[in-house]
Amino acid sequence: MASIVLKDIVKKYGDGFPAVKGVSLEIADGEFMILVGPSGCGKSTLLRMIVGLEDITDGDLEIGGRRVNEKAPRDRNLAMVFQNYALYPHLTVFENIAFPLRLAKGTFSQDEVRRRVEAAADTLELREHLDRKPANLSGGQRQRVAMGRAIVRQADAFLFDEPLSNLDAKLRGQMRTEIARMQRRLGTTTVYVTHDQTEAMTLGDRVAVLRKGELQQVASPRGLYEQPVNLFVAGFIGSPPMNFVPGEVRDDVLHLPFADVPLDDRLRSVVGDRRLVIVGFRPEHVEDAALVEDGSRGVAFRADIDVTEWLGSELYAYIPFETNPEVAKKLEELDRELDGEGLRSQVVAVLSSESRVRDGDTAELWIDPARLLVFDPESSENLTRDEEAARRIDAETEEERRAALERAQRREAASGGAEDRERSASARGAA
Amino acid sequence: MSGLSTRQRVLWVAVAVLVLLYALFPVASILATSLKPAGELQSGRFLPQNPTLGAYEQILVGGAQDLFLSALRNSIGISLIATAIAVILATLAAYAIARLDFPGKRVVLTAALGVSIFPVISIVTPLFNLWRNIGLYDTWAGLIIPYLSLTLPISIWTLSAFFRQIPWELEQAAQVDGATTWQAFRRAIVPLAAPGVFTTALIAFFIAWNDFVYGISLTSTEAARPVPAALAFFTGASQFEEPTAFISAAAVVVTIPVVVLVVLFQRQIVAGLTQGAVKG
After folding, report:
1. Residue B9 · residue B17 · CB < 8 Å
2. In terms of residue numbers, what domain contains A285?
3. Are A369 and A264 contacting, i.e. CB atoms less than 8 angstroms apart?
4. For residue B171, is it within any domain?
5. Under an 8 A CB cutoff, do B178 and A103 touch?
6. How confident is the model at residue B269 (pLDDT cuts 50, 70, 90)?
7. Which of A59, A280, B136, B246 could bridge to B131 as Cys pair (CB 3.0-4.6 Å)?
8. Between chains, do B170 and A86 touch, taking CB under 8 Å as contact?
9. ipTM surpassing 0.85
10. Which of residues 129-188 of A touch B (CB under 8 A)?
C-alpha cells in the first residue's frame, strides 16, 4: 500500500520529442486513478515511468513518500498488467502466477508459494486451469492470469496498461467489473491507463485527462462530466460525445444553428461582451418536446432530423447543421485531437425510446438552457464552470469512495474470518 | 492445407514429389555407387549388380582407415567448437542488436553482411601465408577461426530476426515482477529463444561441416584435415583404379551425422512456442 506522487514529471525522447510535459499528480493510498486520453497523449509513457521501464527526464516520482526516480523496476515493488498480457508461454498458468514469488529467492517456502498462487487463482476463478499453458487459454483467461501474477505478491500498487483493449465487448464489460471488485477488495493503489472513456468513467475514483503530454483536468468521473474545464475534456468524456455548436450573441439572445435561446442571468454573466461562443450540450439533455411534461423552463425548437437510430432503451437522432466558419476550424481541430474522422457537423440527441421522431421528420425538440455549457472560442475554456459545484462533487465522491472501500474490506474481513475458522476447524478434525 | 481443393492438393503432392526426386536422386546415386565393386564402376547402370560393403570396410577398418577416421574426428571436433563459439557470440550480439539502441548498430549488421558476401577463395591465400607465419597452419584453431567468419554473420542475422519476434513486454514484465536484467534474459527470453538458437546452431554446423576450400588450403596433415578435404586424398587400389567407391562411401558416412542432428534437433525446433505470450 502506498501513495504515488508525481511532481512536474517530464519525458523527452532521444530525438527531443516531449511526450510528457510536466505532469503533477497525487494518487492517494488505495485510490483507483485513471489516466485517459486519445492516442499519443503520453498516458502510457507516464505509466511506464511510474513502473520504471522508462527513464524520467525531469521531475520527481515518489512512491510511499520515497523518491524512486533512479530505482530499477524490481526495486519499486509495483505490479503491472500489460496490454498484451506478457505471459510466459513456456510456463504453466501456475508457474506464470508464481513467477514473482520464485524470483524473490528464499522468501517463500514451496508451501507458501502454492498457498498464495491458489488463493490468487481462486480469486480469479483460474483453479482448474493451473496446469495449462497460456497458448491454450482464451483471451479472458489470459487476462486473468496476468492479473493473478499482479495480485499474488503484496505489491505497493497495481498498474494497468490498457488491459481490456484486446478483449471483445462483452468480456470487456465483465472484466471491468472484475477489476473494480478486486481493487475494492484489496484496497490497493491502482493506476489504470485507457483510451476508453467508458472504462475511465466506470472504474476510476478519479480520472486524469491528458492531452499532448499535458494534464487537462483531474477530477471524479462526475466532476469531469458535469464540470469540465475546457472543450477537450468536455468532448472526450461522455458517449455519445457532447455536441458543440457555434453560438452568436445578438440582442440578448444566443442564436444556435437551430434554436434561439434568450440569455438568462447565468448565461449573460459568462458570455460577457463576446459576440461568438462555442456552446456545448450533452446529447441526453435534448428531449422530444412531445414527451416533456413541464416545458416552461426550457426552450423548444424545430429541427430537421437526418437519421435516427432506435436502440431499444433510447433513440439517437442526428441533426445536421451549418457551422459558423469562425469556429469551424476550432471544432475541426478538436475533432482531430479526439481521434475523430471530421466527417460532417451534426448534433446528436438521445431521446426517449418512446419518441415518435423518425428519419426525415421535422421534429419539435426541447432543451433546458441551464444545461448549456459555454466555451470561449479562443482559449477553449469552459466559461460556465462552477468551481464551487466541482469541489462539492469531488468531495462527495471522495467520501463515497472511502465508504465503499471500508464496506468492501469489512465484508472481506468477515468472510475471511469465517474461512479461517473453517480451516482451523478442519485442521482440528484432521488431527 | 484444409482450405485446398482436391485438384490443388494433387498439384501440391506432384510438386513435392518432383522436388524430393530432384534433391534425393544424387544421394541415391552416391549410395548406389558406394555399394558397387571396383569392376562395376564404369558399368553405366544405376544399381550395383553385386552389391558389396567393401568400400565401407576399406575406409572404416581397412587401408584408408587412418586417412578417413582422423579426418572424421577433425571434422566433428572443429565443426562443433566453431558452432558453439558462433552461437554463443551470436546470441549475445543478436540480443543486443534486437533490444538495445546503441550507436553503430547498423554498422555491426552491415559489416556482418559484408563479411559473409566476401568470396572465400580470395582470402584463402593471404590467410595461408599468415597462418604459416604465426603457427596456426594445420591446426584446429587455424580452421575454427575462418569458420567463425562464415558462421557468425548468418547466425547474428537469423538470431536477431528471431529475437525481434519475441515480445519485449515479456522481459519488461519479468523486470517488474522483480527480476534483474540477467534473470529476465535467462528466465523469460532464453527459453523462448531456444528454438531459434537450435536452428541457428544447425545452420552454423552445416556451414562448417561442408567447407572444402579452407579445409584443403589451410591443412597439410591429418592433424587438422577435415573430411571434405580428406576425400580428395583417397587413392584407388592401384594408380589405374579410380577411388570413386571409397569417396562415395565416405560421403555417405559423413551424411549420417547431419541426418542424426536434424532428427535430434527437430524436437527442439518447435514452431510457435511464442504463441500465447501475447494475444494471437
Report:
1. no
2. 240-384
3. yes
4. yes
5. yes
6. low
7. B136
8. yes
9. no
10. 133-137, 139, 142, 149, 153, 166
